[in-house]
Amino acid sequence: MSQSLLPAKLNLPGARSYPPCVFNTQAEKDLYKRLRNVYETHCDTWDAEARDAWPVVVEHASLAPSTIGKITNHYITRHMQNCGVTWAHVVALRIMYEKQLYKSRKLMGLIRCKYPNASFETFAYSEDYMLSFKSEIAREAQEPTVPKTPAVEGSVQRRQGDGGLQLTRTPANNHHRELSKGAIEFLSEGNSSEDEPLMWNSSKKTKPPPAQNTTPKKRAAASNARNEGGAEPHRRTKKPRHAARGTTDVSPRSGEVKERTSEEQEDSIDVFDKFISAIKENTKATKENIRATEKSTKATEENLRAIERNTKATEEKTKIIKEMRARSKAVSKKATKDQNV
In terms of pTM, does the model score above 0.70? Predict the structure, then answer.
């Protein structure tokens, strides 16, 4: 096939010519023509990285059974995964695989990561395909840092001598009343005992003290244990389950777990696809064997019929020969009798 230069807009001094067709089959030649028509029609809208990647895509747009059978095994797909996604890879895979590309969650995830706003109804490229990334970055850059709000002010403190008892009240709102100055002065004069806690500040019910041992022996043992060491007796604490198993490592992040599960799902899907393809091949081979067996059975039946025909013909010939012999014997006997007379 003759080489032709790029469109006039890209035909700059020193520009490379369009890559030639290196394939021999008619299907691959038709694919080469279609790729070239799409490129010459829409290359004006593509970016530089897509134009640079297009020669590699055209040179490896093969339809060999070893590569076209599975989309993840094709050279263009592996080149896209290793060197980065470009619009040239997306266009080529759409033309070669059509709906099969959209069924691959792994490849569509890579494409949507690069072009989240891409349109798959045309082969033209637009900068709006990457708009969500740019808008998110701009929004984060323009968003001012909001200072943290300080703690709720308005705590009332009461101090007596060196040791003071701090009285805190809840934030003022529509449901709580603020203390008046007279109430604060009344409390600061010592009308409330220091030994008793102020109950007006807490609206929650306090938990009752734990029940003590009623048995005299148990009470004595507990009091002796406290008095000896000045503290409560040592309590055995159970080790956590992960420490007992020796798995004290930090759990992986949620993003890593999602990536790992997605990769495992893709691997399991690939294994399942291989298993299904093997079953299909085995089914085809079995059907071919059944057809061959049926053909051989038909041939055997035809041979048996031919043998039966030959057997019948032989029996008829034998019968005719016997009749001829019997007639000849009768004629000879009659002739001998006539001679004797």
Answer: no
